[in-house]
């Protein structure tokens, strides 16, 4: 729109320049015919200011003012803005600004080594949930092993508690043993739930966890769909949660 307005302004200025040159030449010819006629015309112009009949007003700020006669002569008409459908592509270059919630960073949830990173490049498109890479750490194995060990201890303590309760009910046991066993169960249960939460944070489920399906790596997924702006990882790279 700015380029279009500049073109129109330049076109009008050229027309007015030609028109003003012709008018000046005619005015000079009239001055040669009689000095008195020139003084009368000058007095008439001073009475009407800058907006004279048949002349345009070019201000210092670059604006051009036309008289009605000049607009009619050049067949210039005025109209309002309107929406026009352009059946073509408009190519432009620039920077696209996005709100902060349109960005998302992918960070390692634990320290470890990057394995099997996806073949992504900057500017490439990635879908939400796509596997970006895997992260290996021996701590993942230790957490799962500890969880299974506590699960086995809880199963034993539960049997032991039931036995002490039975002895107490038959006056053959000591209530203190029941209380101590219950205390151990509570401690182990709290530890097990904490490990379960940690494994869930890493993306490791314990619902069907057995000694045969312990995993040594976790998967890093794309949190949202979008275009990649930068990649700061590669296979074999050691990363930190920060």
Low-confidence parts = 22-54
Number of strands: 8
Quaternary state, please?
A: single chain
Question: How many H/I helices?
Answer: 5
Determine the strand fraction and express it as a percent band: 5-15%
State the order of secondary-structure elements, H for helix, E for strand: HHEEHEEEHHEEE
Distance between the termini: 48 Å
The averaged pLDDT comes out at 80
Largest sheet: 4 strands, antiparallel
Shape: elongated
Strand order of the largest sheet: 6-5-3-8
Radius of gyration: 44 Å
- What would you call the structural class? alpha+beta
Helix content: 40-55%
In short:
The protein is of the alpha+beta class and 242 residues long.
Task: Describe, in plain words, how this protein is organized in 3D.
By secondary structure, this protein is of the alpha+beta class. Helices cover 46% and strands 10% of the residues. The strands form three sheets. The protein has a four-stranded antiparallel β-sheet, with no helix packed on it. The chain is elongated and about 125 Å long.
How would the blueprint of this fold be written?
Elements: H1 2-33, H2 35-48, E1 57-58, E2 64-65, H3 68-73, E3 112-115, E4 125-126, E5 131-136, H4 138-169, H5 175-202, E6 217-221, E7 226-227, E8 238-239
Antiparallel strand pairs: 1-2, 3-5, 3-8, 4-7, 5-6
Helix pairs in contact: 1-2, 4-5
């Amino acid at each position: 729109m700015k380029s279009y307005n500049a073109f129109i302004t330049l076109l009008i200025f050229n027309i007015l320049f030609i028109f003003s040159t012709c008018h000046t030449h005619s005015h000079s010819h009239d001055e040669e015919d009689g000095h008195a006629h020139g003084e009368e015309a000058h007095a008439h112009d001073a009475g009407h200011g800058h907006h004279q009949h048949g002349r345009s007003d070019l201000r210092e700020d670059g604006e051009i003012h036309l008289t009605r006669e000049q607009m009619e002569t050049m067949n210039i008409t005025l109209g309002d803005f309107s929406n026009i459908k352009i059946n073509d592509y408009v190519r432009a270059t620039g920077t696209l600004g996005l709100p902060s919630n349109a960005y998302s960073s992918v960070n390692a949830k634990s320290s470890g080594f990057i394995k099997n990173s996806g073949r992504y490049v900057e500017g490439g498109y990635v879908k939400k949930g796509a596997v970006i890479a895997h992260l290996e750490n021996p701590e993942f194995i230790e957490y799962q092993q500890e969880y299974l060990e506590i699960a086995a201890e809880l199963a034993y303590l539960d049997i032991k508690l039931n036995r002490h309760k039975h002895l107490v009910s038959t006056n053959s046991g000591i209530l203190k043993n029941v209380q101590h066993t219950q205390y151990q169960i509570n401690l182990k249960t709290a530890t097990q739930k904490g490990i379960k939460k940690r494994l869930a944070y890493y993306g490791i489920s314990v619902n069907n966890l057995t000694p045969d399906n312990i995993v040594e790596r976790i998967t890093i997924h794309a949190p949202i769909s979008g275009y990649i702006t930068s990649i700061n990882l590669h296979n074999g790279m050691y990363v930190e949660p920060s």
